[in-house]
Design a protein that fits this description.
single chain, alpha/beta, three-stranded mixed beta sheet
Length: 196
């Protein structure tokens, strides 16, 4: 199975991270696959809306794969810069897409996964969904997402969630305007597709 699937529903494209056994975390290959799929989405003249979601119901995306993070310690400066640039390319593609992007968050959206969720134009989440830029707890600064996040929530809220690395629920995320709608788990798929 591919790490990322791209399914067509009329003018809507469902982009699913298919790594449920790893909490839909991303490694370099999955990130590259997402970039390729995003280029396909932007070129697709029939596509109007992308919905990003994670396979299964346990996690939207837990950010970087832990085994991949362990390898980063041994990367050279050049390799680390290439890794950061690849993630930045993905974030720019999503944030600057001329089409509408919706994130459908069920379960945790953590670290880079929280970045994916909040880069979207609209974020729909289940009441059980959680959010957090937790990478600060293991010594990583979520620098790439700061630019995009500041546009959504402002400096004080951004500082709170980036510097503490705390995890918060869907209702608090909605109060911060990171989430636009909180929808029950049994309805979210239909609600998102109908809205899209």
């Amino acid at each position: 199975m591919a790490d990322i699937s791209y399914d067509k529903h009329g003018p809507v494209r469902l982009i699913t991270i298919n790594r449920a056994d790893k909490m839909n975390s991303l490694d370099f290959a999955a990130n590259d696959e997402l970039i390729d799929i995003w280029h396909e989405f932007d070129r697709d003249e029939q596509a109007r809306v992308a919905v990003i979601t994670g396979a299964g119901d346990k996690s939207f995306c837990a950010g970087a794969d832990l085994s991949y993070l362990a390898k980063l310690r041994d990367f050279s400066l050049t390799e680390n810069e290439a890794d950061s640039q690849a993630l930045r390319r993905l974030f720019d593609l999503i944030y600057l897409s001329p089409k509408i992007v919706i994130s459908q968050v069920e379960g945790p959206a953590l670290a880079g996964g929280c970045g994916l969720a909040t880069l979207a134009d609209l974020c729909f989440a289940t009441p059980e969904a959680t959010f957090g830029y937790t990478e600060v707890k293991i010594g990583f600064i979520p620098a790439l997402v700061m630019v995009y996040l500041r546009e959504k929530v402002g400096g004080a809220v951004m500082s709170d969630i980036l510097l503490t690395g705390r995890v918060f629920g869907a209702m608090e995320a909605q109060s911060m305007q990171l989430v636009q709608r909180v929808v029950s788990a049994d309805e979210i798929g239909d609600v998102v597709l109908t809205h899209a």
